[in-house]
Amino acid sequence: MRTERLVQRLLGLAAGCSVAVTLLIFGFMVILGLPLATGGTFFRMFTSAWLPHQGVYGIAPMVAGTLSIASLAVVFSVPVSLGCAALISVLGSGPLPALLHRLVRFMTGIPTVVYGFAGIFLLVPLVREWAGRGSGMCILSAALLLGVLIAPTMILFFSDSFASVPRTYLEAAEALGATPVQKLLHVVIPCSWRGLTSGVVLALGRAVGDTLIALMIAGNATAMPGSVLEPARTLTAHIALVVAADFDSLEFRTLFACGIILYLCTTVMVIFTRRIGAAWEQQRW
Amino acid sequence: MVTRLIDRSVTAFAWLSGLVLTASVVGLMGYVLIKGMGSLSPRLFFGNTAPLDALLLRRQVFDGIFPATVGTLTLVGLAIFIAMPIGIAAGIYMAEFATPRIQSVFGLFFDILAGIPSILVGLFGFSVALFFHHRVSDRIAPCLLISALSLAFLVLPYLIRTTQTALENLPRHVRVTAPALGASRLQTIIYVLLPQALSGIVSGVILSVGRCAEDTAVIMLTGVVATAGLPSSLLSSYEALPFFIYTISAQYADQAELMRGYGAAIVLLAVCALLFTLATLIRHRLADHLFYGTR
Questions:
Q1: What is the pLDDT of residues A3-25, one digit of tens each?
Q2: CB contact, 8 Å: B193 with chain A?
């Protein structure tokens, strides 16, 4: 009995430590970013531009970059993912949909840096030629590649929630003479809106949180992007690029503001998906 | 008539999206494979150094990816060594001991930890290293140990969840038999539940290994450098495959270096594919066991 209690304590300690890490990450960012808030520059930072030579360290362009790249990636990816999920679980016949399912699962294992590497040498020149100006490293290229990266998250989530629609509903629709497409449009999709919403939110979270694609493909310019064919810098890429700066400088402190924004974004998305009752298994960072 | 048209166009759209996705993935990966196939040889790893000399650490390798490969292996080994005991222990606690309230509160934290961008975990590791550098000792700087710790934090929630799910998904009859025969709670967990859930837990560990091997954002903030040779101690900087690929793509001096980048990308892709297949195979075996009751 005594050993059992001891073991339980130890296991509980491990779980507690893991929770502590989550809190510690946030705590560290708040403490290190605090001088910004007391210095009165905290709110001005979100609206001003990044002009380090004039001592202005605003992160508004990075917020804009993150928003445009992530939302564009989701816009590209949602229709394709919806089509693929429908093909896998409802519309498809023959061996191809099963193969597609396998490919999508495999995609979750492909290293991000390899996507980025292929993107630089294959996608960027294509976009450059098509646009006819610039280097090809722009919001559009990054969003296209990011769309491919987040597609498996959505497809696996969508097809799982399609599969969890009660069989009796489908049989009822079949008995009324519905075609597969009618079943999809009038039964399956309306029944699985929860899964669809949380799939999109999770994918958006992945798109916002991804560092490598934006860092390698988006061009990293600190100016406010004017169109999708211009380079931009995301919050995550900004952290990666500025980290080498002096520890006590204001420039370095702004990183923690970026970090706090990203952390809070994640928290909101996680709480939202938990609220609408999403399963966790499909989430892959 | 209209119904027919909708039917046709929706079906066509679904097949088209399948095609678009397949084409883009096969295109991207195929491009790397075809361009880089030619660079796959012992020379890719060891450059002009004799392989045996490099393996026995007699001579340093300067123009191959051997140091980066060793760096990645050491890093992944360390990270998993740190994360596995904590993650599995926490997973067992969540599945077997935690009250529903603790389960939901802790679960929220693990979901957040799983969801935060990996670059933030890297930033955390970097700040911790700086903190210790200023407060404790000048010798502590971003290094192999800090990277391994940060990576461990990154895969921790995943290990916890796979362990918890593997235990919770065990069929009820497995769970009640041992206590009915007089086994204590601890005996039930050690002799019945953990062995039954082993394939699920192991496949979670393997996927975490893959995750550690491919991550770049965390390590680029916590001590990886472009040229360091083999890591000499836990407190030294090191090279790693994903960071090598990233630096090559950003700045390559000549064609030979670019080809090494392609080669490294193929090696990393192959490693991740292998780990993924292994995890899938093990998990399928688990499904078979549950279905047919063999074991």
A1: 888 999 999 999 999 999 999 99
A2: no
* Cα–Cα distance measured from residue B62 to residue B67, given in angstroms and rounded to the nearest whole number: 8
Mapped onto helix, strand or coil, the DSSP state of residue A39 is coil
In this structure, what token pair is assigned to residue A61? 């362009």
Domain A60-246 has CATH 3.40.50.300: no
Instruction: Identify the band that residue A133 occupies on the pLDDT scale cut at 50, 70 and 90.
Output: confident
Going by C-alpha positions, the residue among A262, A154, A110 that lies closest to residue B211 is: A110
Confidence of residue A266 (pLDDT cuts 50, 70, 90): very high
Q: Counting beta carbons within 10 angstroms of the beta carbon of residue A217, is it exposed (0 to 12), middle (13 to 18) or buried (19 or more)?
A: buried
For residue B282, the model assigns a pLDDT of 85
Q: Is A56 helix (H, G, I), strand (E, B) or coil?
A: strand
Alpha-carbon gap, residue A271 to B65, rounded angstroms: 43
CATH number of B40-292: 1.10.3720.10
Identify whether the C-beta of residue B160 lies closer than 8 Å to the C-beta of residue B244. Answer: no
Query: What's the whole-number average pLDDT of chain A?
Result: 86
Whether A243 contacts B221, CB under 8 Å: yes
CB contact, 8 Å: B132 with chain A? Answer: no
Query: What is the gyration radius of the CA atoms in chain B, in angstroms?
Result: 23
CB atoms within 10 A of CB A215: 27
Residue of A nearest to B250 (CA): A216
Q: What span, in angstroms and rounded, lies between the C-alpha atoms of A32 and A248?
A: 10
- B47 sits in the region (left: phi over 0; alpha: psi -120 to 50; else beta) called left
Cβ B178 vs Cβ B191: under 8 Å = yes
Q: What is the CA radius of gyration of chain A?
A: 23
Residues of A in Cβ contact (< 8 Å) with B10: 86, 91, 181, 184-185
Look up residue A33 and give its two tokens: 């970013």
